[in-house]
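Priority: medium. Attachment 1 of 2:
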């Protein structure tokens, strides 16, 4: 059974940085493109960034130039380096397979990111 465990969130001031991690168990990680998503209070979950198994990356316009997604295939771990954080980045962040897959693994508990102004 696939398990996704996100970590690294916290409270940071605007302009600050955080690095999120996602540990993936099972076979989901090594063969699939992976992605980061976020859900702000009262809003739907949205895609943030994606990375193929070979390392090709894509980003939502709202985070392009500020966030960097990466992966360590040997450790089955996905990362999201977040710089120049803004209050509107406040959300619970999740990882899963990338947005273009029809089906997803069960969502993990996510990690809360709060950016104060």
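Attachment 2 of 2:
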């Amino acid at each position: 059974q696939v398990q996704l465990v996100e970590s690294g969130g916290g409270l940071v001031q605007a302009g600050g940085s955080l690095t999120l991690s996602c540990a993936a168990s099972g076979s989901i990680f090594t063969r699939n493109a992976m992605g980061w998503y976020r859900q702000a209070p009262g809003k739907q979950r949205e895609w943030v960034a994606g990375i193929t198994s070979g390392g090709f990356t894509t980003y939502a316009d709202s985070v392009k130039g500020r966030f960097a997604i990466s992966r360590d295939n040997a450790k089955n771990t996905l990362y999201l380096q977040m710089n120049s954080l803004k209050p509107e980045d406040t959300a619970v962040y999740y990882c899963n397979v990338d947005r273009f897959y029809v089906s997803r693994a069960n969502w993990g508990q996510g990690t809360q990111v709060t950016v104060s102004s």
